[in-house]
Every structure is written in structure tokens, then in C-alpha cells.
Amino acid sequence: MLLEQFDAFGGRDTGIERTQLVEVERAFQVPHAVIISGLRRVGKSTLLAQIAHKLGRNSFYYVNFEDDRFLGFQSDDANHLYQVLVETFGERKIFVIDEVQNIPGWEHFVRRFMDMDFKFYITGSNASLLSRELGTRLTGRYVPIELLPFSFGEYLRFCKETIPDLQRMTTVEKARLNNLLDVYLQAGGIPDALKYPELPLLRTLYDDILYRDIATRYRLEAVTALKELAFFLMSNPASLVSFNKLKDQFRLGSVNTIKSYIDYLENSWLVFTLNLYDFSVKRQQIAPKKVYCIDTGLASTVGFGFSPNTGKLLENLVFLALRRQTKEIYYYATPSGYEVDFYLPEKRQLIQVARNLENPTTREREIRALSDALRGVKAESALILSDANGNEFEIEETRVEIRSVSEWLLNCEKPSNADKE
Description:
This protein has 2 domains: 2-146, 3-Layer(aba) Sandwich (Rossmann fold), CATH 3.40.50.300; 191-412, no CATH class. 45% of the residues lie in helices and 17% in strands. The protein has helices at residues 2-10, 21-26, 44-55, 78-89, 106-114, 127-137, 152-158, 171-187, 191-195, 201-216, 223-235, 243-249, 255-267, 281-286, 296-302, 311-323, 360-373, 405-412, 417-420, and strands at residues 33-37, 60-64, 94-98, 119-124, 142-146, 239-241, 271-274, 289-293, 330-333, 339-344, 349-353, 381-386, 390-395, 398-404. The protein has a 6-stranded mixed β-sheet with strand order 9-10-11-12-14-13, with helices on both faces. It has a 5-stranded parallel β-sheet with strand order 2-3-4-1-5, sandwiched between helices. It has a 3-stranded antiparallel β-sheet with strand order 6-8-7. Helix 8 (171-187) packs across helix 15 and helix 12 (243-249) packs across helix 13 (255-267). The longest helix has 17 residues, at 171-187.
């Protein structure tokens, strides 16, 4: 089995290089375990293969715990596994492990072998399981890396599209880039779904997560309610939701049940929830949440009612780009009832997303919301993301930029000076 796994892993198509590979390479020289987490089928194993290619074929052991032949394996069996690996491949000091969450108590043997100077590169598909067990056993000794579906830049490279020089784009190139963004909005960034568009892979992935990762794992009896709730959330990305209203809508016993179900969906990386930015933690907790989907293609496939150019999907895309940079993201509601899509407290930046600003009413609405928000938070800058660049201006001595979403998404992926070094 181990020989079969190793040969299959070595023969994997490594695809396009993921941007997170740079983060992993930074951790090569430190003794910490590298934990790569994310949605099923998002490319974690492919990233592992890219890591393995850098490490060298003869330097690591590879084990895939998703293999059904590992059913019944316990962390206590790790010594036997290690013995067979040594007998088969010789002595090596690096473990590359896929889907570790399938093994109860996996963190025990990882910690024990780390204490013997072994290095680990690990993937997992359950956020709650990983964070809970990492927190108790590997505190301070791991590097967490969250892998999301393809970014816009990765999507373009996957499709073998030339990325233009953003400083010297022609009108035709700008139009072409916006058209590609529209296609990406609907197609999303799940690698296999893009590779085999003729197959219903997104629907299959969605069903696997709902039934295998959530209903079965958490032994849920109200599977229909879970399915209806998930469908509602996937159909309403970038929308505000109230746990109380959801409880009544889906006839579930309590608000706690709704919270638990949404936690399950978050732990499986199907959705993310965003809190209101407020100085009162209590108000943050009781205020409605904004919900975003892990992938706009998945939302388009399993959700309901999308037009090809929906602004909600565009806002969802911007959220995912921000999530690749930080987890400190909020939405902001002004006392007058205006909403600003995002507030980044680390940068002290407000961000609005609008499909376009050609309509004077739309432009006025977005600026009015920012103006009102700037009276409540001391932001250092504000940004309006739309279909084209515009002239910057000031509100209350705060600079406001108008940027093309497509160009902004690509600029988000440019390495910093630290990365280059």
C-alpha cells in the first residue's frame, strides 16, 4: 500500500505553482510542522506534490490517510507504520501526510516524532478538528497555511492566459481582462472542475461535504434542515443573515442549533461568516453576520437565482482575495443605516464593491456610505472596487481610490519585498 501511494504521489501532475508555495518554502529550514488546510478538492495534495518536488524524491515518506485501507488505524499504530516505512524506503527525516484528520489522536504521534527532530508537511480538511488539536498539542510549533481555490491570477495561469503589464494596458487588454473576470466569477477556482467542465464535479463535491463531512461526522438527524440551510446560504453570498430569523425559517429548535450548523459548514470550508465591526464585543456577537461562499463557481452551481453579472458574486470574490491576506476582516454599519462592505482594522481601510459606477445614483450611494462610515471609524484610506479605475478624491481628508477589480485582484498577488528576498 505504501509503495502504491508513494508511486502515485510521485506521478501526480503538479499543475500550476500555487502562490502558497512561497509560504511553505519559508518554513523549510524551521523545525515546525507545516499544516495545510482547506476545502476538499481545492488542491492541497497538489501543493504537497509541489513541496515534495522541491524537497527531492528520496528525502521524505508519503502517507495518505484518505485511503480506505487505513480504516481502523489509530495513533498508537504509528510505530508500526514507521517501522514499515523504514524497511521499505530506508531512513528519512521528513513526513508528508495527506488528510491527517482521518486518524483519531494524530497529533500525539506528530508531536512525538517532532520531538525526535522529524519534519512534517500535513494536509487536513476540517478546520475545527485541526485548530482544536493543534492548539492543545502543537502550540507554537506549527505553521498554518490556508489553501483557497484558485485566485484570479492562478486561474489565468491555469487557462494559459497571458497576464498583461498592469501599468501599460491597452483598452483592448482592459476589456479582455474584465471579460475573463466575468468567466472566472461563474466558473470559480476549484481545479478539477475547471479541468473537467463536462463533469458535475462541483455538485458532487458539495454533496460529499454535506453528507460525508458534516451529516455523518456529526451524526446529524435533521439532514434535510442542514441541506436547506446550506442551499439558502449558497444562494445568498455576501448577504446579511440573522440566526434568529434562520431558526424560524428552517424550523430548528434553537439559535444554538443554527449556530452549530453554520459552524459545521464553516469547519468544512463551505462558507465564511463576517462580523460587524464594533467596539462592543457583545454587539458584534448579536448583530447579523455576512456570509460568503468558498468559491463563486460552487455558489453559481448549487445556489439559486444568479444572473451572469451579479454584484454579490463580485463582492464574494473580493472577500476571498482579502481572506488570502488576513483574517481580520469585518463589515461596517453606520448609525444612519448605511453599510460598508469591508473594514480592515490592521490597515484601517474601508472597502466598497460596486459592479460599476456609471449610474450617478450608484456612485452617490457608495460615496455616501463611505462618508458616513468615516465619521464612525478613523480609517486612513478608503477604496471603491469597480469595473474601471477612476480619479481618486478625498472625504474628510481621507484619500479614496477607485480601482478596477480585475487589476486589484492581480495586484493582491504580487509578492512583497520580503517575499522577493
